[in-house]
Design goal:
globular; 3 domains; five-stranded parallel sheet; alpha/beta; binds 1-deoxy-D-xylulose-5-phosphate; 26 helices; binds thiamine diphosphate; binds magnesium ion; 630 residues; Rossmann fold; 17 strands; Transketolase_C; magnesium
């Protein structure tokens, strides 16, 4: 049992501790994080990096009256431990347990939910201005990582801050890492500040002075650090140019310094940025040595950091392998990621074609526009952006790629349920938001080999295309040596089942990873004496209208199955096709309902929401005539 952490029921308890006790609390929190996340999986690296920052923030400020807004909020585990959720910490990212991100419905201390990067500064500014208008005196503090500043929205907010409020505190948590190493000029800029000898000297002096004179010195040091930093980079500090006072860089693990600095910043009547230097994974050697791996991962050995090897290749790895093959024979193929080389597996492509690999930072809108620009020069960009993150670049897909019929390929990993990350990361909307876009084709493979074929098909297509595929592994179908093109808009009849008159009792149209559920449903119906057809839809756009018509005209029931919301999804496309062909037939659509799906294990969630063969069988059975007993 921890001596201090177990007694923290709210931030008020943090304020009662002495500096020495706060240091002990930090040690206990690190131990709790390492041991707890080892079981649950999660974002251990980012959270180990913000232990002192979060303690100091809760020591100086008063949530929920004061508002903390974390960018992405994957680094909010320490905040959760200090705000009355320590006893439930072992449920984090587990079914029915704490969410892995901040969630307004989970706690009053969670001022703003997140999961996608770049939101904190804008949301915090909105809260600050609302406070000013209401005559409030609460503090608003945004904590954002260095990579959050590679996101355009962060700069849209910075452009507005000074004109709109005098009181906003921004903490730049600079560990020089995104998921991979942080990229771009802003990363370079922060690095220059952090490694300047003046700062290093100041830091050493700060530690000495604090020890000697206590807080007053810290304030002095904070100001000296600011002058030094400005001396290094000149008055033209990027934040100063936006009208904010810049302080730092300060050691983001030095609790006394942080506490004194926050007390100083609290009194400022001007928007301020505190540049804190932290170490991602601090206190856990495996996470320090492998910061990319320990950004976010499944369960691991808390002693060694070892994780269970994943035997079968994931769809992401198949994607990277297939793209490498295409790039080997076509020198116009280029790969673009928005700060997700690891998750998309493009870090497997990069060594083969380093000059044709681009990580643009957390900047999906820019990534799509960048791809569009390259496409105008004859290149064939493959934009690897998770389905959920591509939502950020919808206008660029429509206005800049599809309208100009540019041949950009959107490879949407995590298409479908994402699992432990929950509603901010499930890729359940991409068919709906892309199906209405002219010129664009939308594909969803039933297995790994078909993913390879679809990528080849996309390369051959003279316009924009989107391919969605799920997180994790598929059925394990080996890849052909050479991919084969698929006829655009052509579905694949896996099981015909029609009798000589063309009649079939049930026609199942399944898409992507739901083809496997379709096979289970077909087997179950046949075992109950019904005739069944099973079609692999392949395309959500264009729909294979001829195939839909051929089966639907003489089917007793039509079933559609998709790992996507029903509203505007594949089943909707089939319904529209039936309407256009004036075909009336009962249709059972299997997919996600019109609500945000919580985090959890995919199989459990599918069972709970009826996105399974079993649930489909229960809905289809009453629509069928009693089979003639054999
Ligand atoms: C719009 C969007 N794109 C990509 C991601 C994936 N992502 C989650 S955290 C992260 C890196 C964040 O780096 P930083 O802000 O520096 O925080 P740190 O993890 O270093 O604490 C990325 C790319 C996301 N959450 N949102
Ligand atoms: C916080 C964030 O957005 C990423 O770290 C995300 O959690 C990665 O998801 P995967 O684990 O599916 O790659
Ligand atoms: Mg970072």
């Amino acid at each position: 049992m921890s001596e201090y952490l177990s007694k923290i029921k709210s931030p008020a308890d943090v304020k009662l501790l002495s500096l020495a006790e706060l240091e002990r609390l930090a040690e206990e929190i690190r131990e709790r994080l390492i041991q707890g996340v080892a079981k649950t999986g999660g974002h251990i690296g980012p959270n180990l990096g913000v232990v002192e920052l979060t303690i100091a923030m809760h020591y100086v400020f008063d949530t929920p009256k004061d508002n903390f807004v974390f960018d992405v909020s994957h680094q909010s585990y320490v905040h959760k431990l200090l705000t009355g959720r320590e006893d439930r910490f072992d449920t984090i990212r587990q079914p029915g347990g704490l969410n892995g991100f901040m969630l307004r419905t989970e706690s009053d201390h969670d001022s703003f939910g997140a999961g996608h990067a770049g939101t904190a500064l804008s949301a915090a500014l909105g809260m600050a201005v609302a406070r000013d208008m209401a005559g409030g005196d609460e503090h608003v503090i945004a904590l954002a990582g260095d990579a959050a500043f590679t996101n355009g929205i962060s700069f849209e907010a910075l452009n507005n801050v000074a004109a709109q409020t005098k009181r906003l505190i921004i903490v730049l948590n600079d560990n020089e890492w995104s998921i991979d190493k942080n990229v771009g000029a802003i990363a370079e800029y922060f690095h220059k500040i952090a490694t300047n000898p003046t700062y290093v000297n100041l830091h050493d002096r700060a530690v000495g002075l604090i020890g000697k004179f206590g807080g007053r010195a810290a304030t002095h040091i904070a100001r000296k650090a600011e002058e030094a930093a400005k001396g290094v980079i000149g008055r033209g500090m990027i934040f100063e140019e936006f009208g904010l006072n810049y302080y730092g860089p300060v050691d983001g693990h030095n609790l006394p310094l942080l506490i004194e600095t926050f007390k100083f910043l609290k009194s400022q009547n001007k928007p301020v940025v505190l540049h804190a230097l932290t170490q991602k994974g601090r206190g856990f050697q495996p996470a320090i040595e492998k910061q990319k791996k320990f950004h976010g991962l499944g369960p691991y050995d808390p002693e060694t950091g070892e994780t269970k090897p994943t035997g079968q290749k994931t769809y992401s790895e198949i994607f990277a392998e297939s793209l490498t093959k295409l790039a080997n024979t076509n020198d116009k193929v280029v790969a673009i990621t928005a700060a997700m080389p690891n998750g998309t597996a493009l870090d497997l492509f990069r060594p083969h074609h380093p000059k044709r690999y681009f990580d643009v930072g957390i900047a999906e809108e820019h990534a799509v526009l960048f791809a569009a620009g390259m496409a105008t020069k004859g290149f064939r960009p493959f934009c690897a952006i998770y389905s959920t993150f591509l939502q950020r670049a919808f206008d660029q897909v429509v206005h800049d790629v599809a309208l100009q019929r540019l041949p950009v390929v959107f490879c949407m990993d995590r298409g479908g349920l994402s699992g432990d990350d929950g509603p901010t990361h499930h890729g359940l909307f991409d068919i709906s938001y892309l199906r209405g876009v002219p010129n664009l084709i939308h594909m969803d493979p039933k297995d790994e080999d078909e993913l390879q074929d679809m990528m080849f098909t996309a390369l051959e297509y003279d316009g924009p295309s989107a391919i969605r595929y799920p997180r994790g592994t598929g059925p394990g179908v080996p890849l052909k040596l050479q991919p084969a093109a698929i006829q655009i808009g052509k579905a694949e009849v896996l099981k015909d089942g029609r009798d000589l008159s063309g009649h079939v009792e049930v026609a199942i149209f399944a898409l992507g990873n739901m083809v496997a559920e379709g096979e289970k449903l077909a087997k179950a119906l046949e075992s109950e004496g019904h005739t069944v057809a099973l079609i692999n839809g392949r395309f959500a756009k264009p729909i294979d209208a001829a195939c839909v018509g051929a089966f639907a005209r003489k089917a007793g029931v039509l079933v559609t199955m998709e790992d996507h919301v029903l509203a505007g999804g594949y089943g909707s496309a089939v319904l529209e096709s039936l309407n256009e062909q004036s075909i009336e037939v009962p249709v059972v659509r299997v997919g996600w309902p019109d609500e945000f799906i919580e985090h959890g294990k995919p199989d459990e969630l599918r069972a709970r929401y009826g996105v399974t063969a079993g649930a489909a069988l229960e809905r289809v059975r009453p629509l069928l005539p009693k089979p003639v007993s054999a």
